[in-house]
Amino acid sequence: MRKIIFLLCLSMLLSCKSKKNNTSSKEKTAEKSSNLVKPEDVEAIKKDRAYDLGKRLLESCNTSRFKAFSTSEATDKVRQNATNEKISTICKKINQRNGRFLGIRLIDITQNKKTDELIFRYAIDYEKKLFKRELSVTVNTDNKVSAIATKEITPKPL
Q1: Residue 91 CA from chain centroid, whole number
Q2: Strand pairing of 101-112 and 132-139?
Q3: Most CB atoms closer than 10 Å: which of 53, 71, 107, 120?
């Protein structure tokens, strides 16, 4: 009888074994799938393409006129998503919170090892300094912008 109780307790302990946290392994694989690149190591055409298209998109918030991306500048998906209506609604929200667009500064360049795309991160400067925003521009191997997005950066607590 004692053996049976012992075996039951042992089996319960083994079945209640806690699972290992898989987030750390996921983070490690994410870190390995991309790496930071020095700006000097990136082709000038890719740097210029990311900067020019990002700045042109953000300047349209000041002028209310957006010059559509051409087929040689951006992928079809980006061109379909960058409509005047979508850009004007986003610009209204951003202008209310941040004021006029002043410029962008390069933060870093990351290369995705799987797709060989370069991701350019820029800090966006606005009149109002209350809210920080970043621009992310992805340039593929064909020197076309394959993704472009802005996001608000939440302040880190002290």
Answers
A1: 19
A2: unpaired
A3: 120
The pTM of the whole model exceeds 0.85: no
**C-alpha closest to that of 90 among 155, 150, 154, 134:** 150
In the predicted structure, residue 30 carries a pLDDT above the cut 50? no
- Can you tell me whether residue 1 is helix, strand or coil? coil
For residues 25-35, average pLDDT: 61
97 backbone dihedrals φ, ψ, rounded to 5°: -85, -35
Query: Do the Cβ atoms of 120 and 54 come closer than 8 Å?
Result: yes
pLDDT higher at 111 or 158: 111
Residues 127/102, Cβ–Cβ less than 8 Å: yes
The Cα 108–Cα 136 span in angstroms is: 10
Tens-digit pLDDT profile for residues 127-154: 988 889 999 999 999 999 999 999 998 8
